[in-house]
Amino acid sequence: MDIDVRGPRFGAAVTTVVLAAVLVTGSAWLLAWQTLAFALGAAGGVSRSPYGWLFRTAVRPRLGPPTEFEPPEPPRFAQAVGLLFAGLGLVGYTLGPEWLGLAATGAALAAAFLNAVFGYCLGCEVFLLLRRVTVRAE
Fold first, then answer.
1. Which residues contact 131 (CB under 8 A, 6 or more apart)?
2. Residue 32: pLDDT above 90?
3. What is the pTM of this model?
């Protein structure tokens, strides 16, 4: 079942704010929260993430009906990629080196910002590219 494209974009906007706050404050706890949000989105799909729940219960009822839909697999893959970068960032912030935390968090922030502001989901595009490559290889 396809999902409303506004949900992942809303989640990316919240993620952008959270990751920017992590870079400003250096808070490993805040990055741990975002890592958990990515993990839930990767495991259950973006609609099962905390930001998906917030969109579904508080934001979507105030919007008009959706006009665009997308398959859930690319955003779910993007959540897994975000989980990888947030996990690396968490390692960097807690165990070191600090530059790893900054770089990994910055990379995740850049991807979330692209989706939130421009509607360009970098992780989704990687998913589609990998899908094309693996289909041709078979």
1. none
2. yes
3. 0.94
